[in-house]
User: What shape does this take?
Amino acid sequence: MKRVLILTAGFGEGHNAAARNLKAALDQFAPGAVEAQVLDLFERCYGRMNELVKKAYLTTINNAPAVWEQITSGSTRQKFLS
Assistant: This one.
């Protein structure tokens, strides 16, 4: 049996929904051939700090979406590789 680890970042429901649906698809289309597990990497590695950052993120996107738009639009304009 093959084992698949699906890593997610539980900041909002999109990442979690994608991870759960990927696992469900593997369970449905490869029963007995694949064992899939979903793991929130940030939760596992950063614990309490993850909870604080997640709360700040959710508060920002729900109460100040313009601020979040500025953060994300700024990050997409950055050149990370020359």
Remarks:
- The mean pLDDT is 87.
- The radius of gyration is 17 Å.
- Helices lie at 13-29, 41-63, 65-77.
- The longest strand covers residues 2-8.
